[in-house]
Design brief:
The chain is α/β, with parallel strands linked by helices. The chain is built from 8 helices and 9 strands. Helix content is about 30%, strand content about 20%. Helix 3 (about 80-90) links the parallel strand 3 (about 75-80) and strand 4.
Length: about 230
Amino acid sequence: MAKRGKRYQEATKLIDRSKSYDINEAVALLKETAKAKFDETVEVAFRLGVDPKKADQQIRGAMVLPNGTGKTQRVLVFAKGDKVKEAEAAGADYVGDQDLINKINQGWFEFDVIVATPDMMAEVGKLGRVLGPKGLMPNPKTGTVTFEVEKAIKEIKAGKVEYRVDKQSNIHVPIGKISFDNQKLVENFEALVETIVKVKPQAAKGVYMKNVAITSTMGPGIRVDVSNYR
C-alpha cells in the first residue's frame, strides 16, 4: 500500500472506524477531515448485497441531486433537424452529428456528458470502443438517449449524476463539494440513498446495503448509518 501523508493520518485519528455515524455527524466530521487546499469533491460509496454477474441484479440509472454537484458539466449533443436548434436553445455546449463523430475519432474529448437522439445511435454506436472505456457512451437507462433533448440537457446542467454497480458490487457517486453547506450535502446524500433503495433488484437476497461511506477527494472514508433508509 502507498504510504499516506501526514494530513491523511491526522484526519483518520478523528474517525472511529468501528462506528457508523448519523449522516449529520458524518458530514460535520467530513468537513473537519478535509484538509486539501482545493475544493474537494464529496463522494458516496455503497457496498451492496447484489451479484452484478446476474442480469437481474445489475443496477444502473441516473438522478438529479436536489442541490447539484458543484460542477459545471459540458454537454455534447448528437442530433439533427429541429433537435439541433432545441439543443442549442437548452444550453448544450456542442451540437452536431458526423462532424463531432470525426473529431472524437481524432482524439477530442472536451466534454463531460453526451446526449444523443435515438435516430443518431446507429452512427454514435460506432464510437463504442472510444467512448465505452471512458464511461461516456449515451444510454437509455441514464436518460442520455432520448428525443427529449431539452429536458435531458437541463437535468444534466442542474446536477444529474449517474450510478452503476461495478464488478465488486460497489457504487460510487459524487454528491457535491466540501464547500457546500452541511444541509445541502445531507439533502443530496439522502436523495441518493433513497434512489438506491428504490432500485433494489427483486432478486437480491439478504442485506442490501452492506456498507455506505462518504469521503472527500483526499480524506478518509466515514461510515454512515443508513438503517433508517432501509
